[in-house]
Amino acid sequence: MFSEAALLLVGDELLSGRTHDVNLHRFSRLLAEMGLPVVMARVVRDIPQEISAAVKDSLSDQRVVIVTGGMGPTNDDLTVQALADAFDLQLVRSPLAEKMVRDKQREYGLGMPISALKQADIPEGALPVLNPAGIAPGIVLHAGNCVVICLPGVPRESSALIMPCLRKAGVKPRSVNKIIFIRTWGLKENDLFDDLKKLAEKNSVVPGFLPSPGRVDVKVSGMGADGFAADVMKKLGSRVYSTLRDETLEEALGRKLLSAGLTLATAESCTGGGIGRGITAVPGASSWYAGGVITYSNNLKISLLGVKKKTLEVHGAVSEQTALEMARGVRRITGADCSLSVTGIAGPGGGTDAKPVGTVWTAVSCGEVEKAYLWRLGGERESVREGACARALGTLFELLP
Amino acid sequence: MFSEAALLLVGDELLSGRTHDVNLHRFSRLLAEMGLPVVMARVVRDIPQEISAAVKDSLSDQRVVIVTGGMGPTNDDLTVQALADAFDLQLVRSPLAEKMVRDKQREYGLGMPISALKQADIPEGALPVLNPAGIAPGIVLHAGNCVVICLPGVPRESSALIMPCLRKAGVKPRSVNKIIFIRTWGLKENDLFDDLKKLAEKNSVVPGFLPSPGRVDVKVSGMGADGFAADVMKKLGSRVYSTLRDETLEEALGRKLLSAGLTLATAESCTGGGIGRGITAVPGASSWYAGGVITYSNNLKISLLGVKKKTLEVHGAVSEQTALEMARGVRRITGADCSLSVTGIAGPGGGTDAKPVGTVWTAVSCGEVEKAYLWRLGGERESVREGACARALGTLFELLP
User: Fold this and answer.
1) Domains in chain A, ordered, with CATH?
2) Are A28 and B45 a contacting pair at CB < 8 A?
3) Could you check whether the bond before residue A348 is cis, i.e. omega within 30 degrees of 0?
């Protein structure tokens, strides 16, 4: 029934440079994978006439129009009124939407300010959809053989609502080629691309590369996908941490630790808590993660972890020896079965000729095994830090059975 | 002469999810700062009719229309032809553009394939602009009292070309409507909106609200902006951490610590390192941040921080007493002048009737002062965690002179 999609992003903040939109990219990919290619996108201000006009312009035969943003309770949230205006409909208080809003306000312990109820007013004939990650319900409105879906702009909420709304709208994924995800850590996109070029040709596939610092997902579909995936797994070995689309490196590591009955502790310098934060984003991580230390200063490396003063003087804070002593130290003070440590130069300052910005040492300690690794990472401060987190986690993943 | 801008992003790859566009964000901000607010943006496929139609739709009185993408030599680069079509112009070989292309091909050691000369064909009457970062020249075309500027889509090239093209087009920065940002912590968007409603009416302004967990920015411009900002600052007091658009809460806190000559340590449970990670995202944070501990398990709260076993048994890990003992403990083991601690229930599991998901205790310890705070936070696991980070940081910010 539906064959294509259009996106309409609403919000002054997207056009003022205040917010860096991610919905365009995320939804384009998702919808393409569902067999609903996005054929156009528009970004409009929080001005009802402009939103209405853009909604009307976006309608076309067999099209799903997805509108994000402007769904909240405040007076610059004008999307729902504009949607009603576009179709000459009245806004009506939906009892179902009201229940959703009231339940969520209660769940979140937010009381029930009168302004929140605005989120229960939807165009007559529209359907509200429960928001799994926030308060404002999604809205589905059929219009001829088109359908308009309105979602909050916050990416966490729009991502959580998009599939329930598509289902409510009766949009079914068209027969799409199976997509295989091969999730890797510690490889650079360019290198990976060159490495896999021959395998892609051999299997007649065109893989997609989805990079983030320290982690690259390879995505492949079509006839040769299974053969390609098997070849890649063989070539990359333990640099592949998962073939499940949604399993993070932290979750994959937790899976291995849990099945081996081991606990983990972390000692971080340049990443400043990023590894711990990533690990504790996994619900239930407390069954395998004890905690750790953030030793940002040299003094704390000495006093908390027992790194030797001499080690710091002779080899420096960013060195194999320091990384190993950090990993050893955090195991000793926490009693954990395994540990990992990171020390590096994230920049922009602090680099030298011998140890330029991007120089990172990581170490793992597990049972009787101790290993340290040197990484030369590129990019800005946050790239170096995120890249270092992935490599520390990856080396322990690699080491565990 | 020019008062506003429109953006037109051309390229299948932007709508297929393959490429994550950055031009929208970058140019929106640049143009807003130049006093040329971007009033609309569109993303279209590499289809000449769609590009032409979008160019025509984007024209408006006193508007600068900026088109990016589809300027290269290959056969899916169709923007220039579409631009000519939009105005019923012929493409002509520009001697000036030809020289630019030939010089660049030579400079890059690329020889002179005939296909490259396609980049020297521009609509009659248009002006070519030298590309400092690539081969394809920019194109400036006046159309009535509008101007259309075409740039390559590659961010490095479009960023290098935008200012030369604006100058060639005769666009001068206008006196900009000042925008005031009031950055707050620890307030919920709904409550803030209700709180500021009267002040907004009194000053005849329509503030925008930009929320993220634990932090809401209020944005205001126009005649009444200064009065509104003064009223808001008075009302919210230390819940405002900055009026600088780019200053984060972590930076504002660091500014205070640095000027007071104090150092900070952190003790995190449910946030798992998120506070440390946020702090260490600030370059130079080492001059005021020592580090800290992630005590995710109760055992580590006891062994590393000296939280009393009895405290955990009687009051629980998520309690005023535990938060205070954590803050005290991390000061003792690090020797820092100040500390902050967090312990809470981030969910989805672990909630009880007395302490539902979202219950968070934070504490600060600074000099002789010790304080603990109870928060009831809403939303998903990551919202609770991020909200808790902001509140822990904010309470110390509030306490410092």
Assistant:
1) 4-168 (3.40.980.10), 179-242 (3.30.70.260), 249-399 (3.90.950.20)
2) no
3) yes
